[in-house]
Automatic annotation (TrEMBL):
Keywords: Antioxidant, Oxidoreductase, Peroxidase, Redox-active center. Pfam families: Redoxin. It comes from Wickerhamomyces anomalus (strain ATCC 58044 / CBS 1984 / NCYC 433 / NRRL Y-366-8). InterPro entries: PRX5-like (IPR037944), Redoxin (IPR013740), Thioredoxin-like_sf (IPR036249). One of its GO terms (biological process) is cell redox homeostasis. Belongs to the peroxiredoxin family. Prx5 subfamily. The active site is at 13 (cysteine sulfenic acid (-soh) intermediate). Residues 1-123 form the Redoxin domain. One of its GO terms (molecular function) is thioredoxin peroxidase activity. This is Redoxin domain-containing protein. One of its GO terms (cellular component) is peroxisome. The keyword Glycosyltransferase does not apply.
Length: 126
């Protein structure tokens, strides 16, 4: 599962989007899923963000990765300039990959929303 987030430590990401993935790690693992959280932030910010959630030692289940130049997010058409002060960032999205096949892609209509990319929705897609 690849989870796109606009900005580490931003309120929607930290308070609405990621908590479900962190508290649901056991559920994702039971379905054989690993989670990659992507943001434009640098690796130091992402490591600190993982520490905030208490998962920096669970890299076998969840990885906080940097997409600093947005090569991945832009490459799959999932970046946005909706939040202008930050410039272009990853959109809020989720991608499910099963056996090297993409089975689910969802991008939120607005980066402040957490519906189609929520942990609950994605877990149901596994």
């Amino acid at each position: 599962v690849i989870v796109g987030t606009p900005a580490a430590f931003s309120p929607p990401c930290s308070e609405q989007h990621l908590p479900g993935y962190v508290t649901g790690l056991r559920d994702f693992s039971s379905k054989g899923a690993k989670i990659i959280v992507l943001s434009k932030d640098n690796l130091f910010a992402n490591y600190a963000w993982a520490q905030k959630f208490g998962v920096s030692d669970k890299q076998d289940q969840i990885i906080f990765a940097s997409d600093t130049n947005l090569k991945f997010s832009k490459g799959v058409g999932l970046s946005t300039t909706e939040f202008d002060p930050l410039g272009e960032v990853a959109a809020r999205y989720a991608i499910v990959v099963k056996d090297s096949v993409i089975t689910y892609v969802a991008k939120e209509k607005a980066i402040s929303e957490v519906t189609v990319s929520s942990a609950e929705k994605v877990l149901n897609e596994l």
